[in-house]
Specification:
Elements lengths: L1 E5 L12 E5 L5 E6 L4 E6 L6 E8 L10 E5 L5 E6 L7 E10 L4 E3 L5 E4 L1
Antiparallel strand pairs: 1-7, 2-3, 3-4, 4-7, 5-6, 5-8, 8-9, 8-10
Amino acid sequence: MVTTAALGTFTMPAHADYLMTTSSDGYCANGQFEDHGEWFYLLDRCYDGHSAVMRVDVEPVKSGNGYDFLLWNPDGYETMRSWNKSYPEGTAVCIQVGLGEYGSGTSWGYSSWTCGSA
């Protein structure tokens, strides 16, 4: 499931038990993982023509910059996308956010890894 919304601010889900938040270099992308329902949120915060992108690494966690999949928000400035996944309770989930070019699949400027559990 993918949801897109235009936002002026990044609103935290009201029912989060545990919420991880991280920002890219320059704060042009914000990403969140909410353990209640395993929701990922990705917000594009800059009017720069680049997409917001999130790397997701799910247990077993890879070393270095390894990851399982990318989530993209190519919808532009002040838009947010959300994705609902399903993981067993206690599964480790790590996220990084950065910027990229959706069409070519290239990305850069990633935050440090932020990890939690489902």
